[in-house]
């Protein structure tokens, strides 16, 4: 029967439902995934820098993160980076000029607006020359080129 009848259609642990003799399909995505093929992860949380977090608190927040059904949709990594640039490192939110700044991005590497993501990464680096951006692939299928773009864009 070949690959036509047995392709990988639903990613990230999604359930595939075949229709029309296997010519069409729909996916029921696992929690935290969305898209026609469950190809997108949407997770974004920004922590106020005026609070201190230990490793346990951060790991617990990531492990227990969930996305309400009414908040799922397109993934705008660029908007998250713009928010970090404009708000997260502000002195009113605990930002200090004398310390290195870190941004850790958990993503599948498939933003809805990749050019905006690249532009916002550049703007963030220009605004904070001492910033360190780390990108971590999340999910069963990850677009690694985008992870490199996030981490290395100058």
From TrEMBL:
Residues 48-154 form the VWFA domain. Residues 1-39 form the EGF-like domain. CDD domains: EGF_CA. InterPro entries: EGF, VWF_A, vWFA_dom_sf. The keyword Disulfide bond applies. Disulfide bonds join 10-27, 29-38. PROSITE patterns: EGF_1 (PS00022), EGF_2 (PS01186), EGF_3 (PS50026), VWFA (PS50234). Keywords: Disulfide bond, EGF-like domain. This is EGF-like domain-containing protein. It comes from Dreissena polymorpha. The lineage of its organism: Eukaryota, Metazoa, Spiralia, Lophotrochozoa, Mollusca.
């Amino acid at each position: 029967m070949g690959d036509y009848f047995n392709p990988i259609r639903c990613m990230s642990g999604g359930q595939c439902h075949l229709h029309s003799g296997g010519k069409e399909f729909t996916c029921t995505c696992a929690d935290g995934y969305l898209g026609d093929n469950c190809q997108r992860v949407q997770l974004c949380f920004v922590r106020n820098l005026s609070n201190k977090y230990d490793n346990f608190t951060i790991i617990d927040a990531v492990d227990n993160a969930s996305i309400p059904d009414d908040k799922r949709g397109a993934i705008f990594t660029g908007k998250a980076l713009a928010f970090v640039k404009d708000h997260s490192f502000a002195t009113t939110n605990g930002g200090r000029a004398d310390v290195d700044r870190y941004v850790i991005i958990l993503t599948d590497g498939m933003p809805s607006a990749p050019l905006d993501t690249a532009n916002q990464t550049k703007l963030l680096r220009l605004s904070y020359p001492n910033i360190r951006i780390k990108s971590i692939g999340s999910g069963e299928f990850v677009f690694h080129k985008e992870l490199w773009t996030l981490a290395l864009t100058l």
